[in-house]
Design brief:
- This protein is an alpha+beta fold.
- It folds into two domains: 87 residues, Phosphorylase Kinase, domain 1 (2-Layer Sandwich); 179 residues, Transferase(Phosphotransferase) domain 1 (Transferase(Phosphotransferase), domain 1, Orthogonal Bundle).
- 42% of the residues lie in helices and 15% in strands.
- The protein is built from twelve helices and ten strands.
- It has a five-stranded antiparallel β-sheet with strand order 1-2-3-5-4. It has a three-stranded antiparallel β-sheet with strand order 6-8-9. A two-stranded antiparallel sheet has the order 7-10.
- The radius of gyration is 21 Å and the shape is globular.
- It binds adenosine-5'-triphosphate.
- Adenosine-5'-triphosphate (ATP) binds next to strand 1, strand 2, strand 3 and strand 6.
- GO terms for molecular function: ATP binding; protein serine/threonine kinase activity.
Amino acid sequence: MAFTRTKHATRDHLPHLLINVPEEHQEPIKQMCLKMMSHDAYGKPYQWTSRDFDMGAPLGRGKFGRVYLARERHSHFMVAMKVMFKEELRKGNVQRQVLREIEIQSRLKHPNILRLLTWFHDESRIYLALEIASEGELFKHLRNAPNHRFDEPRSAKYTYQVANALNYCHLNNVIHRDLKPENILLTSTDDLKLADFGWSAHTPNNKRKTMCGTLDYLPPEMVSGHFYDDSVDQWCLGILCFEFLVGSPPFESSTSENTQAKIKRLDMHYPSHLSPGAKELISGLLRREGRISLVDVMTNSWVKEGMAIRAAQLQQQNKKGKENLANN
Ligand SMILES: Nc1ncnc2c1ncn2[C@@H]1O[C@H](COP(=O)(O)OP(=O)(O)OP(=O)(O)O)[C@@H](O)[C@H]1O
């Protein structure tokens, strides 16, 4: 890739790079790779600027940023370009949060974590060149799903992918701390990308005490203002898995005081449509202490079986899609 600064593929590696690429896409991808390899940035330090990119359609808008589809001029490599105005960041007093997000996200390289490919700034703006997740926020898909919830196989697959991403974060001494469907993006291949590391933190051994994250997802130790460690992310994964399956988080209530009180009492109910496997997994995560590990989640039998069913569902959908295309 034009953006990587170490371990570069050369022309000799092209046959290897194209191994899993369908026949009909081989030539355009080969041409793009060749263009990337001939870019001044390839393998060398390079000062990117907005002049290197053609900006296209808007993909979305956040509190401080607007995100556009953008194309790198030389290689035609597509990215999602997040543009933030320095003045707005200053007014919102979030400069440090943004710098932390950049610093942490540029170090993390995992298939289920949104890649920050490069970043640069000019007098008034900061630009983040991000990997594209073309299906956008997972939250939108949850809201559009029947009864605002995913079926068990789909929930199991997504739970696995988030557990995998969080496990990688923890191995790299990073706690995400703000897991929720709004902070997860979906790709065209039905894969999740964890985004928004604005609240994440390095975890140098000692426990932390900052209250952050979203109320519905806060673990009891954070609600009570106690010290906490990276197992807060396991709690959030339990809430997320519940929300996938039920359509709303388990401690949701009309006021934030009630939500906090319910979290402290672990006052929640499992709807009758949940399978015993799903309940067992969630109850292993939504504990005050002794939460199951992320590796336990990834090897859990409900998760494994659900993933296999989801893979078969997608294969079936793809087959139908191809048949419909052929018939039209
Ligand atoms: N990499 C991406 N690929 C595709 N769409 C994206 C990508 N990043 C962001 N978007 C879209 O742009 C929207 C805004 O993203 P952004 O990261 O600025 O905001 P946010 O995280 O939702 O909000 P905030 O951090 O301000 O609370 C997202 O909701 C999503 O729809």
